[in-house]
Write a structure and sequence with these properties.
- The protein has 2 domains: 205 residues, Sandwich (Jelly Rolls); 117 residues.
- The longest helix is centred in the C-terminal third of the chain and has 20 residues.
- Helix 9 crosses helix 10.
- The strands form 2 sheets. Strands 1-2-11-8-13-6-5-3-4 form a 9-stranded mixed sheet. It has a 4-stranded antiparallel sheet with strand order 7-12-9-10, with no helix packed on it.
- Helix 3 links the parallel strand 1 and strand 2.
- The radius of gyration is 22 Å and the shape is globular.
- With 406 residues, it is α+β, with helices and mostly antiparallel strands.
- It has 15 helices and 13 strands.
Length: 406
């Protein structure tokens, strides 16, 4: 990040994002084929949360692009079997519905590839349905393979930095599936950002701007499962569908990556995806968690006066539904990142921006009544201590001209 980009955003308590209406009405997504500075990418796409598409030149040197794909652009089943063989992998059935997702099973990789071959031979059909290898933590399971490199544009990644530190989980995935595979309409985990790169094949994305999901709920408040289904025209079931804007439709070719939700495989496809979080969207995650907790509290409000630990129960239920609670949200904020890595990759202004964003978020946490009621003893760093440490760091670096206040 350069000085100009930093000075334009360093004092933002809440990031004011550009209007989505004008952007979506153009039905146009920028296609990036030339070298682009991180600062320009930060200002134009990361901070305002605007989608874009990168050309295949950004992934041409990836090992997976060279080894996982045949000369005619198809999945190289032989090479993939050599690398993963009996590895257990998660496989979803696109022809079945379980709540708002496709049910999954775990099967050996070799068994999935055998199914995929037969599916192609049978004209892309099978009595087993359309099976889709989904949410496979390949990078975590095979770190020595180094089949791709995260582009610098997505390298500020608090979410995976924290989980890598714990050595428990990550939000890096591999997807593989035959033509016809698809993902139900959804918002990404914790409202994080997402980037996706096709190793081979083609995907169609349907993207809606934030807020449009409220028009795509049924009379029970459930989000539409398939936004291409004819049942959305049933006003008795979906009374507000006509108020929704038309989605952005993006065709993602092999090698191309996108900043990104409905996804449909138009060809046999392999792709890599990361969910990630940083100072640009930490406020979106925090707002998401507050909304989730409010929903839980409304659902069990009648039990409030019968439980001494009602507030803690709400946190437990929220974590069961969304995967995280307030205390766990606070943990990555206190995770001690490596300043040398950040400085060498993104520069001192980006490190300064991160400090500002963490400070604003911690201040918001400390003012939140539900957060005040929690037991903070499980947190690695107490939020009050963390906030003071950040303020001390900001104060000490002012003399080095790293931080600029408006």
């Amino acid at each position: 990040m350069d000085r100009e980009a930093y000075r334009n955003c360093c004092s933002l308590v809440k990031i004011t994002r550009q209007s989505y209406e004008q952007f979506w009405s153009s039905h146009f997504v920028d296609y990036i084929d030339r070298d682009l500075s991180y600062s320009k990418f930060f200002r134009k796409y990361l901070l305002p949360n605007h989608p874009c598409m990168f050309s295949k030149r950004f992934t041409n040197e990836w090992k997976c692009r060279k080894q996982w794909v045949t000369e005619d652009g198809k999945p190289n089943f032989q090479k993939l079997l050599q690398e993963f063989d009996q590895t257990p992998v998660p496989v979803a059935n696109c022809n079945a519905k379980e709540y708002n997702a496709n049910p999954k099973q775990v099967m050996p990789f070799r068994e999935f590839i055998q199914y995929w071959k037969e599916y192609i031979q049978n004209g892309h059909s099978s009595p087993k349905g359309c099976l889709y290898l989904k949410d496979w933590h390949m990078s975590r399971d095979f770190p020595e393979h180094n089949v791709y490199t995260t582009p610098v544009f997505f390298s500020s990644d608090w979410l995976n930095e924290y989980w890598d530190h714990l050595e428990v989980d990550d939000y890096r995935f591999v997807y593989m599936g035959p033509k016809g595979s698809w993902t139900p309409f959804h918002a990404d985990v914790f409202r994080s950002y997402s980037w996706s790169a096709n190793i081979c094949g083609r995907k169609k994305w349907l993207l809606y701007p934030p807020g449009q999901e409220e028009f795509l709920r049924d009379t029970h408040g459930n989000l539409a499962y398939d936004v291409t289904s004819s049942e959305l025209h049933d006003k008795g079931l979906y009374p507000h569908t006509e108020e929704a804007c038309q989605p952005l439709e993006i065709i993602q070719e092999a090698g191309r990556s996108s900043l990104l939700m409905y996804v449909f495989f138009q060809e046999d496809t392999i792709s890599i995806n990361h969910n990630w979080l940083n100072g640009c969207n930490i406020d979106l995650m925090w707002q998401f968690l507050q909304n989730e907790l409010s929903s839980v509290q409304r659902e069990i409000e009648e039990w409030r006066n019968t439980m001494d630990s009602w507030h803690q129960h709400c946190q437990v239920i929220m974590k069961a539904c969304s995967g995280i609670d307030y205390a766990e949200f606070g943990l990555p904020l206190g995770y001690p990142r490596h300043p040398s890595d950040a400085l060498s990759t993104l520069g001192p202004y980006h490190a300064a921006f991160d400090l500002q964003r963490v400070a604003h978020t911690v201040e918001s946490l400390l003012c939140n009544e539900d957060f005040k009621r929690l037991d903070h003893s499980t947190m690695t760093v107490q939020p009050e201590t963390l906030l003071q440490q950040i303020k001390d760091t900001i104060q000490s670096t002012r003399g080095q001209h790293l931080l600029y206040q408006e």
